[in-house]
Write a structure and sequence with these properties.
Layout (H helix, E strand, L loop, with lengths): L2 E2 L6 H4 L4 E2 L3 E6 L5 H14 L4 E5 L4 H10 L5 H5 L3 E5 L5 H19 L3 E5 L2 H5 L4 H17 L3 E9 L2 E5 L4 H4 L2 E8 L8 E9 L8 E7 L2 E4 L8
Parallel strand pairs: 3-7, 3-9, 4-5, 4-6, 6-7
Antiparallel strand pairs: 1-2, 7-8, 9-10, 10-11, 11-12
Helix pairs in contact: 5-7
């Protein structure tokens, strides 16, 4: 089985080497848990291996994505110049155009560019564009089928549900995803510093760790302390 390394020290160890090629993985977390940083690190790991990648943002501009990456020492500009990386910024303000680009332009890029990795950050805004749950489900499943058709390994971030920190905002993403990785903040009762933790809730065809492990965001990116234990 071909495994795609995430680029995150410690997380690959939890996954027995990485995410299976062609898998769709959902990263669920509340604001401040580093979902976008995980996404960028995943994409940068692929670029360093010579893979063609797409980073689709529904929040940040292309300029801000490049600036954020540079803060961790990841220079995206050469990869953009040689067309190894396609940055796409979609606006939630123009629903019709955004939906059209996601559902029509992405498959065209898959065909023409031989894309190996895709990050959608966040998928939540795409889901919000549909009022009816049945349509939201249908569109999400259609998008997933297109990714699988072209063998794209996809990373999607999602806000968690306000009433359930282990569920995506609409409770749909985890059903279409092959893997679910949950990011959480643990706040000790004595008001010590908040600890961020990661849990691999699901990863098909991988005998992954079931443990909950702490992680930190450093100047060089995210590091998961796969050997550490969590104490409440």
């Amino acid at each position: 089985m071909d495994l795609m390394n995430t680029g995150v020290d410690g997380l690959d160890e939890m996954l027995e080497g990485g995410i299976p090629a062609g898998h769709i993985t959902a990263f669920l977390g509340s604001p401040g848990t580093g979902k976008s940083t995980f996404a960028l690190q995943f994409i940068y790991a692929g670029l360093k291996k010579g893979e063609n990648c797409i980073y689709l943002s529904l929040e940040e501009s292309e300029e801000n994505i490049v600036k954020t990456a540079s803060m961790f020492g990841w220079d995206l500009k050469p990869y953009i110049t040689n067309q190894k990386l396609v940055l796409i910024r979609l606006s939630a303000m123009n629903i019709k155009v955004t939906v059209g680009r996601v559902e029509n332009d992405l498959p065209k890029l898959f065909r023409s560019s031989g894309v190996k990795r895709l990050a959608i950050d966040p998928i939540t805004l795409f889901e919000m564009m549909y009022d009816a749950e049945s349509e939201r489900r249908e569109r999400l499943f259609d998008l997933a089928e297109k990714m699988r058709e072209y063998g794209v390994t996809a990373y999607m971030t999602s806000e968690t549900n306000n009433n359930n920190s282990f569920s995506s905002k609409y409770g749909l993403l985890e059903y279409i995803a092959d893997g679910v990785i949950t990011l959480r903040q643990i706040r000790p009762s004595d008001l010590r510093a908040v600890t961020t933790v990661v849990e691999v809730s699901k990863m098909r065809r991988v005998d992954h760790s079931r443990d909950i492990k702490p992680y930190v965001i450093t100047k060089n990116g995210i590091v998961v302390h796969s050997e550490a234990e969590i104490f409440s």
